[in-house]
Amino acid sequence: MITQKMKYALKALLVLADEAATAKPQPLTIEEIAQRSGTPKRFLEHILLEIRNAGVIASTRGRSGGYSLLKKPAEISIPELLRLIEGPIAPLPCLSRSAYQRCEDCKDEASCRIRKVFAEVFWSYLVIIESLTLADMLRADAPPELKAMTGG
Question: Which of 46, 65, 96, 112 has its CA 20 to 30 A from that of 26?
Answer without folding.
Answer: 46
